[in-house]
Amino acid sequence: MTNRVLLIDGHSLAYRAYFALPVENFTTSTGQHTNAIYGFASMLMNLIRDEKPTHIAAAFDVSRKTFRSEMFPEYKANRAATPDEFRSQVTYINELVDAFQIPRFEVAGFEADDVIATIVSEMGEDVDILICTGDRDAFQLVSNRVTVLYPKKGVTELARMTPDAVIEKYGLRPEQYPDFAALRGDPSDNLPSIPGVGEKTAAKWIVEYQSLSNLIARIDEISGKAGESLRNCLPNVIRNRELTQLRHDVPIQVTLANLKWPGIDVNHAITLFERLEIKALRDRARALSGDTESTKEPIKKLKPVKVSSEFIDASNGSGSVGILVLDEGFAIASNESEVALVAKLPENFTESSIITHDAKPLIRDGKIPKVEFDTQLAAYLLNPGTRDLEFAEVVERYLGVSIAIGESDLFGGSIDPKSATYLIPLKELLEKELADRQLLELYRTLELPTMHRLAEMERIGIAVDRNELGELHRYFAQIEGDATAAAHKAAGREFNVASPKQLQSILFEELDLPKTKRIKTGYSTDAESLEWLFAKSKHPILENLLKIREVSKLRTTVEGLQAAIGSDGRIHTTFQQTVTATGRLSSTEPNLQNIPIRTDEGRKIRATFVAGNGFTELMTADYSQIEMRIMAHLSEDKSLLTAFHEGEDLHSTVAAQVFGVKVNEVDSEMRRQIKAMSYGLAYGLSSFGLAQQLDISPTDASALMGKYFERFGGIQDYLKDVVRIAREKGYTETILGRRRYLPDLNHENRQRREVAERMALNAPIQGSAADIIKVAMLQAHNAMMNAGLRSRLLLQVHDELIFEIAEGERSEMEELVRREMGSAYPLRAPLDVSVGFGPNWDQAGH
User: Fold this and answer.
1) Interior CA angle at 44 toward 169 and 520, to 5°?
2) What is the Cα–Cα distance from 40 to 9, expressed in whole angstroms?
3) Of 293, 340, 543, 739, which is the most exposed, with the fewest CB atoms less than 10 Å away?
4) Is 464 helix (H, G, I), strand (E, B) or coil?
């Protein structure tokens, strides 16, 4: 078998992956970004699968300080600082390479492609070599035995640069590439080009004179302005040539034998991908390694069985049954050997104890009345940082059993109906684990009842005015169209306002506006950059572009709501209880927790949510400054507690103490700064982050923090203690004992440690707020039922509850909700509840 060596330029490919995949779409529940990891891993696995190498090595840069930067300090000096979001992923990428059992090489003073060039030199003539890199300088290594795989688009499409491919693209042989590159220059490396000399002229000269040295020897023969430019820039060209040439003498010990690839360390890789919450990569790693667990026996069809009361009672006399939802029907298990397959659940389950996985849809749709135990919810509470909560994953994690997957769907759809027999032992194990971690009471008294309440809220839904939504859609479309026309007028021509490339051309070339932050494709045109640019230049095109961005989001929101209206004229959102690591609920299909409130246009959307038939109005009730009240409670800071008990306006009272003025002397800027500071501290904000948020210098931000902590030292002590205790325990806790595990608190990598520290600061406060609002929901509902009221709880939106009020129940509902929400938890800083009424959600606001 031919030896086939795959050499990976690790830093180049990881960086390309980072910019190819949107960073905001790849984040773990702890806030760790994973887009570069995901893209790098995908590319690596594709290469191994498609190229089938026998030997592999990966080379990485150590830093930007190399022999090239010493020779030419401006080398790569124009490149933007490496984003923190990328830096925090580098150690994971290193661990990924180790899990794949691929040797890693990195040498101070050299770049990864120098390491690769050296490895190529050490390989024999009978070896096929593949180099995967995004650096075109590697084209000089191409030969009959060396092919460069160069990413053309994102992380999926690779160009195979063989000798013929290099000739086809540049008209040059691979060994001539450094000469050509020296003449062309390289803006990405800050290597100067020759004015008036582009790629075509540079290639023509090398073809004609065969080499740069021959060209220089006969430089006086080059006529015209191009020749004059070449002579004037000759020192730069000679230096470019030295910098472009890859080194083949990097001090590393490498042989073909020590690059032999033994295959993936499956357990290490799977553990890493589970920690990073990337299930797709875990499954691919298994398949790539040939793990037999990825090849399951096909499902053996079970015949439908009539479910009798004897069948249900046969489970050790407990009356418990496990119900597993299948693609077409249900599997019911009463013990470890008997399973019934039914198309519809029988009605005699009302008295039995049901154990299932993801019960909320069954309860919402009226298929079962309630459950004794939900294994998905229990697994979430035990490890709120994971997103792998499918039944097969939980069974494998806790019982060590791999569930057979149906041939029709290898990614978790059709599972073996016999798997229902695992539900009862799984329940017993999870229940014991919850008890061992002091989480069983939280599960039984808060999370499970909340699940039942959410199922009912989803079933009820909330009424919307379909006609008003239609009018609103036309209104937003008109604004968007007018703003687009105005932007075209300001630019002097029509262009695609949604195209970053066309925007870059209009803004930075034709209008010559100040440059925003540099990105891979030029200069950024995202909303934040456009806002900065508008503040700098006030150009009318920017005002309209920002208006288009704002209104386009609103129009899209309206379209989503229109599509979600049911036949009953109501929108039935889905509440996600097992997604956030802090315990907060989220809302999807559609997301009703993200309806805008800060702008007049956004509030128009809220106004389309109305009281339905048979009800008179909506009531909203929310907690005032709950995060700060929890902060005061947890820190026991006397000054902050006093401010809550005595101050009419918290932020003005706190500002007065920090700035040493009377409350009536606090201006809006003082109040703004203190508000940002107070909430920022509750979310792990650093002085640098505060500086960015307030648009002040880091020095001023640090000074402001210093003044704050002089007055509120209890908060500073608490914040330090939170991280210290979490580091010792490995997790944080809320007021009700909800845990969030943060293993990276003790990691050697600073970026990963700092991410975990911010999570440790945030989790107890945000998690406690989640606990309190859930308690409030349950208490309010139970009180409504006990009082025989017809009013209904419809939505929970962060710290706000929305009720639909029945005729004649307004005053009783206000009193009841204020009482139950206000007594949800005995904080040292009392819970303050605000209530409002109105025919729609907007007018019910307060």
Assistant:
1) 55
2) 11
3) 293
4) strand
Contact 185, 203 (CB under 8 A): no
Q: Hey, CA dihedral for 34, 37, 43, 44, is it positive or negative?
A: negative
Q: How many residues does the chain have?
A: 846
Distance CA 583, CA 443 (A): 12
> How far is the CA of 66 from the CAs of 61, 190, 247, 347, 374, in angstroms?
9, 15, 12, 74, 57
In one-letter notation, the amino acid at residue 466 is: R
Sign of CA dihedral 151, 153, 155, 156: negative
521-540 pLDDT, tens per residue? 788 898 888 988 898 888 99
Are 844 and 617 within 8 A, CB to CB?
yes
As given in the structure block, the two tokens for residue 482 are 């007018």
- Which one, of 408, 416, 99, lies nearest residue 282 by Cα? 99
Which residues are CB-neighbours of 32 under 8 A, at least 6 positions away? 88, 89, 92, 276, 744, 752, 755
- Secondary structure class of 472 (helix, strand, coil): helix
Q: Mind listing the pLDDT tens digit for each residue in 162-199?
A: 999 999 988 889 988 888 888 787 766 667 778 777 77
Provide the whole-model pTM: 0.72
Distance CA 70, CA 218 (A): 31
Residue 352's CB is within 10 A of a number of other CB atoms, namely 21
Residue 262: asked if its preceding bond is cis (omega within 30°), the reply is: no
Residue 506 DSSP symbol: I
CA distance 176 to 212: 8
Strands 373-374 and 353-356: what pairing?
parallel
CA distance 778 to 105: 57
